[in-house]
């Protein structure tokens, strides 16, 4: 397949994936109200708790949980933003298949088998990270709002709140995909399980730094939960790497890891003793070879009596 044909195939795959996302956005637009109610649930619970504390445990008759819209176009943009997120999630199997169908022809059979495993684990890991982020949001809101004066009424802006929640879910979901990269590196032979286990201190430090930078909240709960979860997933990937290395080396010869220009060690090599050879029967009865006389000097040729020109 030529480069132009590859580009045409990529264009076709991207077009199909875009159509699937647009159809998912239409469904997401119809479900945007229910999704928004789910997203604002942590905020409503916190607002209700603060209102009860402010009114001595009694909610006003006209109290309701809501957001503030600072621009005229914010309600429409909020609905479209939620529709886009829902469309990406609903159409994920189809556009991920289009991506896989474009990459799969360039992989070997063994690589395809492992790619199926990684693709099957990607969606549950992302979903687990998003659910954990939704739990952390409720704890983080309570921590952040706790610094506000009890006499102050809190009204959050709709777009900022949705960006905050979806940003947390995206960061946690992407961070939970990190172990797949470690497993892929081990399957490809780039890093062994023993080497990965020796890097655990550096890895945990990097996880905490990443969580501190990537988490949009200033509270320590989100950062700590994300870093701890990434550390646990890292050790799970290391266990997979150790098991995979043991399986790989089970039927592997001892000289497989030696390079072409590397001398193998002979410390453990046991040399078998060799016995003296037995004499050959009748060897002493063989006659000695007849000596060959030395060559004599060759006589010089006599000059010719006539020349070739004499015959013409």
Question: Explain this structure to me?
Answer:
This protein is mainly α and 312 residues long. 62% of the residues lie in helices and 0% in strands. The protein is built from 11 helices and no strands. The protein has helices at 3-30, 32-39, 41-54, 74-90, 92-103, 109-145, 158-175, 178-187, 193-198, 200-214, 220-248. The longest helix has 37 residues, at 109-145. The radius of gyration is 39 Å and the shape is elongated. It starts with a helix and ends in a 64-residue tail after the last helix. The mean pLDDT is 77.
Helices and strands in order, then pairings?
Layout: H1 3-30, H2 32-39, H3 41-54, H4 74-90, H5 92-103, H6 109-145, H7 158-175, H8 178-187, H9 193-198, H10 200-214, H11 220-248
Relative helix content: 55-70%
Beta-strand portion reads under 5%
Average pLDDT over all residues: 77
Spans of 5+ residues with little confidence (pLDDT < 50)?
none
Radius of gyration: 39 Å
> How many helices in DSSP terms?
11
Largest sheet: none
Measure the end-to-end span.
Answer: 76 Å
Helix/strand class: mainly alpha
Shape by Cα distribution: elongated
Number of DSSP strand runs:
0
Order of helices and strands: HHHHHHHHHHH
